[in-house]
Amino acid sequence: MFLKKIHKKIYNFFSSFSIRLRLSLIFVAIFGVTTILFNTFVFKMMIDNLQQDFDDALFNYAVDVSEGVEIGVKGDLNFPPLRLDHGKILPFPLGTALIQVRHSSGAVLARVGNFGEFNPPYKKDFERIWGGEEATYRTIEHISNIPSAEADSYRLISFPLDNAAKPQLLLQIAVPMTLLETQISKRLTLLEFGIPIVLLIATFGGLFLSARALAPLKRMIDITQNIKASELSARVPVPNAKDEIQKLALTLNAMLDRIQQAFQSQERFVADASHQLLTPLTIMRQELELLQKTEKRDVDLFIRSSLQEVDNLANIVQEMLLLARADAGIGALNLQELSMDELIFDALSRCEKIANAKSIKLKLNIINESNEDRKMVLGDNDLLENLIFNIVENAIKYSPNNEVVSITLTYKNETSELMVEDNGPGIPDDQLPFIFERFSRGSNMEARVKGFGLGLAIAQKIAILHNAKLSAENHLGNGARFIFEIKNI
């Protein structure tokens, strides 16, 4: 729980930074960790190489010194004074080297240099050499007992003098690691100062590069902040680089296109709706004024006329509410498993009165192309029934009297298809692309056909809401054909 709180605080703290700063910090963090790890690895490899070179030089020196030690034929030891060779250049000062010969019993047989109280260890060195090692090395760091020590640490080599299977004599040489310590110290100082400078440069470089990279985003923000409802034609600039920023710019422009179209559609809708609502209100006002002026008042006639206009107003409002519900999206749907034939029967029962008024026959055909008896669809019962009612009602309105409106339901394996055909005048080619727009009237018979131009717009909106397809076309001969296709479940 405590760690979670700490993590949340850190997250909230960094979330308050700008994207530019966060990108720079992430870049510096990744670059810094990588740089430190790489330099640590290189530094360790360098120390190992320097140590190996130092040990190789110390080994060669031990070989040279061992050649000056004489061992008699009978095993007696003859140690002439050990001398130092000053003619060679080695990574340690020869004048301060401490040299001694030691027996396996621990006795020191010969010694050169001021050892003071320094007593080099030897037991484990004998064991390792008896185990087969050519020589042993160790670093002596506690050298306070060496008089006039020249370095913080000494390197000790133990080298066998006799060639027995189990050597009894060791040549031990301890030399100061002054040069090695100096080289390590210089390189460490270089890293201690170099890495922070590199990270500082990387920080400013990251801030500069992130600012350049995010400059198009800043321009997009500035432009979108200035876009108003009255200036929806403005668009954000699209960079030439084919990257995520270009995709974002194209996405924003596409969204602005949709918003502009939606605003324009709403403006047309409001204007058309106002006109449609104003017409019956104007008629009612004129009739009421006429009723007020008329001496012989036929009240029943005026009441019937007013009621008719009220019905027209109610129908407009009802269709607009249905359209608003469709505009509300999928969240407004009451989805359930439905049968298309039942929906058609319910819609046709509502259309019978309209069809009988024009002596039009409604002919229903059901064709099953699937392997099952009946397919089900997923949708909103009221909305789908309204869609079917609207396209059938539209066919009845534009059909001449005493004609037939054909309704064909085809069950397919993947979809259910409803086709409604009438024998009316058809849809003019220039009006066909706009047949599903709000307040659009698809024929020059507009003056003789009652309606408000909302039915097909509502039907198309319902179809889109159900991921279905509603299309219109003219069939051979006279008349229009509407095809509604929805996926089965």
UniProtKB/TrEMBL annotation:
Documented EC number(s): 2.7.13.3
Source organism of this protein record: Bdellovibrio svalbardensis
UniProt keyword terms in alphabetical order: Kinase, Membrane, Phosphoprotein, Transferase, Transmembrane, Transmembrane helix, Two-component regulatory system
Gene Ontology MF: a single term: kinase activity
InterPro entries, A to Z: HAMP_dom, HATPase_C_sf, HATPase_dom, His_kinase_dom, HisK_dim/P_dom, HisK_dim/P_sf, Sig_transdc_His_kin-like_C, TCS_sensor_his_kinase
Domain Histidine kinase: 272-489
UniProt cross-references to Gene3D superfamilies, sorted A to Z: 1.10.287.130, 6.10.340.10, Histidine kinase-like ATPase, C-terminal domain
EC category name: transferase
Main location: membrane
Protein name: histidine kinase
Stretches of the chain forming a coiled coil according to its record: none
Source species, domain of life: Bacteria
